[in-house]
Amino acid sequence: MNEASEQLIVFDNVSKFYGEILGVNRVNLTITPGITSLVGPNGSGKTTLMNLMTGLIRPTRGQISILDMTPDEPEKLFRVVGYSSQFDSFPRGLSGYEFVYSYLLLFGFDRAQADEFAWRAIDRAGLRDAAHRKVGGYSKGMRQRIRLAQAIAHNPRVLVLDEPLNGLDPLVRAETIALFRSFASDGCHVILSSHVLHEVDIISDQVILMSAGYVVAEGNIQSVRSEIEDQPMQILIRCQRPSELASRFFEQEHIVEVRLHHDRRGLLVKTSSPGRFYRSMNQLARSGVGIESVAPVDDDVNSVYEYLIGGEESTR
Amino acid sequence: MNKLWWTQIRAIIRLEIRKTFFAKRGLWIYLLALAPVALFTMHTIVALRMQHMGRSGGPGSEGIGQMNFVFAGVFQFFFLRLAIFFGCLGIFMNLFRGEMLDKSLHFYLLAPVRREVLLVGKYLAGLLAAIVIFSTSTALQIVMLLAPYDSPAISHFLYQSHGLEQIVAYLGVTVLACIGYGSVFLAAGLLFRNPIIPAACVLIWEAANPVLPSVLKKISVIYYLKSLCPVNIPLDPGMPPLIALLVSNAEPVAGYLAVLGLLVLAVVILAASMKRVRRLEINYTTE
């Protein structure tokens, strides 16, 4: 056991088949602490990956290690892992408080501790007022929040969240994202799946893009974008004399396309070589065309997703 | 005792008991358990009415000894083979299979609980519920059986005709039946999606027990239970052959061996279930 592996979640050549049907195939991943988002269309294998990570299903092939533990040891694993799954069913007849409290009793906490931890988690999920109502009568957003309360109640080091922002109103969404950030800033793993790509973009330290059971790309979104060489990078340049700048760009062979921005105060440039583009920009900046800003416009999750997985496939 | 596994078992029992006792879908189990109580209650009501009207020859005019045979027949033929059998099926098969169908089993599987501890906790919760329901039924049946008789007759039966020992034996058999059938149906709930198939198989296996070879007889719950029943039902020559076969016990074993055999059978089945539950996966879509 070494210190580094105690911090990592590792998938080593993991495959999962449901009979003939592929769940995930040959997944190799090393996930470091921070917020990691799983992105992909329906059936791409995001939930399968989360269920494998938490031992709810077993890999057909390969090994999984969560902070140096295997998912086959739930008695150890769930001391440090909290999972808010997408399963929208609860033990019958329980109130929100009883749901979290009963879960904590299973850890072996005494009643006073379980009560204290349950209320702390319920408060963090913003459900105190509804805590004594039956979960069966909760709205979708409230059920989502009580599952989140259950997942964080024992203060885990790894938080696995399947579509955690589904059904939440904007205010609660913002609070929930802040909660994830606070976990990540404490050195925890927050692994979530989301279909709201712009939120993934804002939240994530790294993304894992999945399609048809395969990991298509992983890592920091900008580095993933830079590896997509068959798609020229789009860059927006704000400047005072865009037409003059455009004529200079046409002389350079790595420039694939130049378009005048619709407000006529900038250029949208496509380049096959971002490195050469930025070097040439240093010279152009000194030539008096009045460059105000230079920013890539397609190094977000949305664009990367579209390039790698395809815009026609809708995410969840 | 404050070991972690025991604390966890107590937490599981706390959750399960509530579901088992108060679930609407378990109502039929109460009806099944109370059916013989209703039968003996009706007998008592008719007997007391006839006594009140000064008539003789009706229910209650037969001695306690004769009614004791009637009770033995109802206990062995209906209560053990049908009421406890199907009641345990309803209680124990639901412990895992019911939660798979409700899609709520992951609640337990996401907690730091060894799967074996979960199985034992659920089994004990089911056992507690089954024992309370069916032992209460056995006790009420006996109360209703004795109700038409006067105090001297009851005292004579209890203290001079081994009645008290028989009552203890019937309660013991009820508890052991819950232990045995409970383990069988808990295992079945882990192995089968449809309870009808294992129920039918076990029912046929138990019914065929008298004609099975000696070795196979021992892999059966009813074999041990029949050996422990305190009253042998006299085989009437006019009795239908199927019923005669069901109530007869050609090779009874000694009481202590019967208890030991049944407990060993239950432990073996639970040990096999533990191996299965260790490999259990959540895949609600296939349920």
In short:
The complex is a heterodimer of chains A (316) and B (287). With 316 residues, chain A is α/β, with parallel strands linked by helices.
What does this structure look like?
Chain A is elongated and about 75 Å long. The two termini of chain A are 38 Å apart. In chain A, strand 1 (9-18) and strand 2 (21-31) form a beta hairpin. By secondary structure, chain A is an alpha/beta fold. The relative contact order of chain A is 0.14. In chain A, strands 5-6-7-3-8-9 form a six-stranded mixed sheet, with helices on both faces. Chain A has a four-stranded antiparallel sheet with strand order 11-12-10-13, with helices on one face. Chain A has a three-stranded antiparallel sheet with strand order 2-1-4, covered by helices on one side. In chain A, 35% of the residues lie in helices and 27% in strands. With 287 residues, chain B is mainly α. Chain B has twelve helices and no strands. Chain B is globular, with a radius of gyration of 21 Å. The model of chain B has no long low-confidence stretch (mean pLDDT 87). Chain A binds chain B through residues 18, 51, 54-58, 74-79, 83, 85, 87-93, 102-103, 105-108, and chain B through 4, 7-8, 11-12, 14-15, 18-19, 22-23, 99, 102-104, 106-115, 117, 279, 281-284, 286.
Note the topology.
The complex is a heterodimer of chains A (316) and B (287).
Chain A: E1 9-18, E2 21-31, E3 34-39, H1 46-53, E4 61-66, H2 74-80, E5 81-84, H3 96-105, H4 111-124, H5 140-152, E6 158-162, H6 170-185, E7 189-193, H7 197-203, E8 206-211, E9 214-219, H8 221-227, E10 233-239, H9 242-249, E11 255-260, E12 266-271, H10 274-285, E13 291-296, H11 301-308
Parallel strand pairs in A: 3-7, 3-8, 5-6, 6-7
Antiparallel strand pairs in A: 1-2, 1-4, 8-9, 10-12, 10-13, 11-12
Helix pairs in contact in A: 3-4, 3-5, 4-5
Chain B: H1 4-22, H2 27-52, H3 64-102, H4 106-109, H5 115-146, H6 151-160, H7 163-191, H8 196-207, H9 214-217, H10 221-228, H11 241-247, H12 255-278
Helix pairs in contact in B: 1-5, 2-3, 2-5, 3-5, 3-7, 5-7, 5-12, 7-10, 7-12, 10-12
